[in-house]
Structure formats: structure tokens, C-alpha cells
Amino acid sequence: MKITSGSVEDSIRALIAQHGKISFATFMASALYESGVGYYSDPKRVSESGDFFTSPAAHPAFGVLLTLQLHQMWVMLGNPDPFNVMELGPGSGLLGDDIVSFSRALDPNFASALDYQRLDRASLEFGVVQSGSGETTHCILSNELLDAFPVNIFQIENGVVREKFVSVAEDRLVFQLGEVSDPEMSARIEPYLNQLPEGYESEVCLGLSNWAEQISRMITSGYVISIDYGYTRDALYSPQRSRGTLLCHYRHTVATDPLIRIGEQDISAHVDFTAVDEAMAAAGLEPMANLDQGELLQLLGIESYLDRLMEDGLPQRDIQANQYALRALTDPDGLGRFRVAVHGKNVLDHEIPAISGDKVASFDGVVLPALDDDPRRVNLFAGAYGGGEEISGTWEELLGG
Asked: Strand order in 266-268's β-sheet?
């Protein structure tokens, strides 16, 4: 196969030529983040016309309801001005745009204090730097960031944890089994060895500690909100999940071979939320909440959201499109199963979220955004029903209650 000059595959092959083999984490970091040629060097890849979409693209309610959560955190921190929020891995910027826009309608004082910053994730090692102002960050927010942290792959061979490296054979990139490159890999898996079958393989993310330490240095008193798909460690390393969780996305299709279409397809793995908690705790950030996205959005008032839209006199067709999109955000078999982990540093031990289900309805005069024609948004209803069928149902049925 002819390789394009200056491609990310060229760079990876050069590393292998130098070292003989490289860890999959090194391969993944290059494939996704190498400057100018890595997958995330093109922000259009996360879009309706790209390879996959995220929750903000489904409906502006996702950003609106997170704005309510940020507003609560602002109040709990004593209404700091500025209130510095850093979004890591903003992609197209849609989530941040929705949050900033709705903050103006929600509370002018909050909007005036809100300083919303974004740091692109297309940087090797996911380096996080403090802004030049030297001010503390009050909340660090990420949506589908941690799943793209580079991971090492392991496989069980004769009851021993072995590592899968990337090498070259007959001019093709291939996996090569060898001794683990970092003892932390074995330490995480050994408690589960007696229940894992021969040939079992999965992933370990070793970069969380460095990330948590950098985040902790940014925060004097504040919160970290991490939204992603994943499991606790006991569930992640279950015998039933014997082929791991590594997946690739290319033009809205799912693939399992990361050694092809290098730099052109996304690579991700489910998050070990036990490892996230451990890394955060070591960096001085305590867990405050861990719930699924559907549960969080219901607590923040998503059931009231459509009621308000209907009161605004939307046409029936638009009501159905909005209803379908809101359902997608809370679907326990889809976006609703994502986990939301909240950690805090030097904050009062208040419940997160401490917001009643009718919070949205209580904001008299606040206009709640419906689905719009922003090209970054995805019309899920049109895609599913093509303009013909109707959907209906109670909120209990629609939201899986």
C-alpha cells in the first residue's frame, strides 16, 4: 500500500523503525493528535457530515441544562466575578455557544461574570495550561474527552497480563504481544485475573493521573464535570467484555480495526471511572456525584423543557422533532447511558445537582431554545422518520421512567 508523504502513518512507522515496536497508547496519540495530520486536526470530523456527533448536536437543551448546573455551582462558590469555566475538547464549539447564549437569558449577572474558555483537545498528552491571567478556574467541563485519551492494550496469555504493541511485518502494521511496558497495567488487572478467560483483552488508560494533577493546579476552589461513556472498573473488566471496548468511527459507521485509515478515523475506549476517581483523589479532588446523563438531565428539568416549548406554540411537526431529540439525550440505551462524574476541590459538600425538576419552568420570561438550523446540529427525527411517521407518548414512556 502506498503511503502518503508526510502522513501520520509515516510518523508512526518512523517510530517503529527507531524502537522496534511502540505501545498502542503511542500509536493512538499520534493517530489522533499529531499536529496537522492527526484525526482531531480537522474539527469537521465531529459533525453530522463527519464521523459521529455528540449530545450538544442533538438539542440545545443539553447546553441549557448544563448552564443551570453551572449557575448552581457559581452560587455555591459565592458568585465569583469572573466565574472562569474551561471546556476541554470543545470540538465545533457548539456546547460552549449554547451555554454562553442561554446564560444571558437565565441571569444577566451570571452572564456578566461568566468567562467561558475553550481548550482544543488536539494536543499530544492533553496538556492543560493555566490562562495568562493567572486566575483560578472555577469549573472544568468536558464532554466525550476522556474516551479519546490514549490507552494501552493488554491480553491474558497463560494467566499472565501481556501487552499488545504495534509493529510492522511484511510492510503492514500489526499487533505484537510482549511484556507489559508499565507495571501499573498488571497491577490494575491482577485482581481480576482469576475470572478472566484465556485470550481476554481490554484497555488501560495510564494518562489520567497527569491530567488530574494539571487540572488540580488550575483549581483553587471549584468543580470538574466529566461526561463520557464508561464503567466502574469491576464492570469494565468483566468476563463478558472479552474483546475490550476499543472502537473506531468513520463516517458514522463503527469499526474495530484501529490499524487502518490512520488519521482518518476516530479511536476511543470506554472510560474506567474508578481510575478517574483514583486519579482525582490523588490530586486533591473529591468525588461529588456519579450518575448517568439521563438521570442528570431529568434532575435538571428536561421533562419541563418540552412542556415549555409546547406552551410557546410550536407546530406539531416541530414538537415531535424536539420531543424525539430530548428523548435521545436521555435514552438509557444511547446518549442517556453516558456517565457524568463531578469532582470538587475545596468546596462545600452540597448535593450535585441540587436542582428541582421544575427549575426550568420557574424562570418566567426566559425563552428556552428549540431545535434550530445551526449546521452543527443533527436532526435526529428527520433522520429516523424521514418526515412521515409520528411519535407520541407520555414523558414516562419517552424518558424511560
From this structure: 253-255, 247-250, 266-268
The answer to whether 338 touches 293, Cβ cutoff 8 Å, is yes
Asked if 279 and 212 count as a contact pair (C-beta separation under 8 A), the reply is yes
Specify the pairing of strand 266-268 against strand 247-250.
antiparallel
Which tens digit of pLDDT belongs to each residue from 329-347?
999 999 999 999 999 999 9
Task: Work out the number of other CB atoms within 10 angstroms of the CB of residue 37.
Answer: 19
What is the pTM for the complete model shown? 0.89
Which residue, 264, 111, 132, 279, is CA-closest to 206?
279
β-strands 271-272, 266-268 pairing: unpaired
- Name all contacts of 238-243 with Cβ < 8 Å and 24+ positions apart: 239/195, 239/196, 239/197, 239/200, 241/202, 242/196, 242/197, 242/199, 242/200, 242/201, 243/201
In the numeric block, the cell 493567572 is attached to 134
Q: Where are the alpha helices (DSSP H) in 107-202?
A: 108-113, 183-189
Please classify residue 193 by burial: count the beta carbons closer than 10 Å to its beta carbon, then call 0-12 exposed, 13-18 middle and 19+ buried. middle
How far apart, in whole angstroms, are the C-alpha atoms of residue 297 and residue 86?
A: 21
Provide mean pLDDT across the span 159-173: 97
Q: What percent of the chain has pLDDT over 90?
A: 69
